[in-house]
């Protein structure tokens, strides 16, 4: 699939982030696909440059187990031909951008645990829905 790269044990994908309100400004970067992260983690300077507004704060548990409070806002994230609206956490400017599992699932992608590559799901799961439309 076009638009992603793999390093040993890691999957990266090129993501274009735009403000929810639209416009021509965007931040495009190689993001680490992190299925342990719920939301996207984007350098704060990039989000501020795009005009993304702070909507609230999250207590976030980092990979070392510490908890830190981060601002978040909403963005459009586009990768591998699909686009979704998702939370973007205002990350430290030197942090590696992360693509969280919500954005993956919203666009119908998953990480193949065997190959560590992104795979398109045959359908977006709605397992709680019984299948009757009437």
What would you note in describing this structure?
The chain is mainly β. It has one domain: Cathepsin D, subunit A, domain 1 (Beta Barrel). The chain is 10% helix and 46% strand. The chain has two helices and ten strands. The strands form two sheets. Strands 1, 2, 3, 4, 5, 6, 7 and 8 form an eight-stranded mixed β-sheet that branches. A two-stranded antiparallel sheet has the order 9-10. Strand 6 and strand 7 form a beta hairpin. The model has no long low-confidence stretch (mean pLDDT 88).
Superfamily (CATH H level) name: Acid Proteases
Please give the CATH architecture.
Beta Barrel
Secondary structure tally, helices = 2
CATH class: Mainly Beta
What is the number of strand segments?
A: 10
| CATH topology name | Cathepsin D, subunit A, domain 1
Number of domains: 1
Percent range of helical residues? under 10%
Sheet with the most strands, sense and barrel status: 8 strands, mixed
Q: What integer is the average pLDDT?
A: 88
Content of β-strand: over 45%
Q: Indicate the low-confidence ranges by residue numbers.
A: none
Helical/strand content category? mainly beta
Determine Rg (CA atoms, Å).
15 Å
Our measurement of the CA-to-CA distance between the termini, rounded to an integer number of angstroms, reads 38 Å
List keywords for this structure.
134 residues, mainly beta, Cathepsin D, subunit A, domain 1, 8-stranded mixed sheet, two-stranded antiparallel sheet, 2 helices, 10 strands, globular
């Amino acid at each position: 699939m076009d638009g992603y790269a793999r390093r040993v044990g890691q999957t990266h994908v090129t993501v274009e982030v735009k403000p929810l309100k639209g416009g021509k400004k965007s931040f495009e970067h190689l993001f680490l696909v992190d299925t342990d992260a719920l939301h996207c983690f984007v350098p704060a300077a990039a989000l501020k440059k795009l005009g993304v507004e702070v909507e609230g704060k999250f207590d976030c548990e980092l990979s070392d187990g510490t908890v830190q409070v981060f601002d978040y806002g909403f963005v459009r994230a586009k990768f591998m031909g699909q686009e979704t609206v998702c939370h973007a956490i205002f990350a430290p400017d030197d942090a590696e951008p992360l693509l969280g599992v919500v954005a993956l699932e919203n666009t119908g992608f998953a990480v193949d645990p065997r190959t560590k590559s992104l795979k398109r799901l045959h359908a977006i799961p709605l397992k709680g829905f019984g299948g009757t439309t009437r």
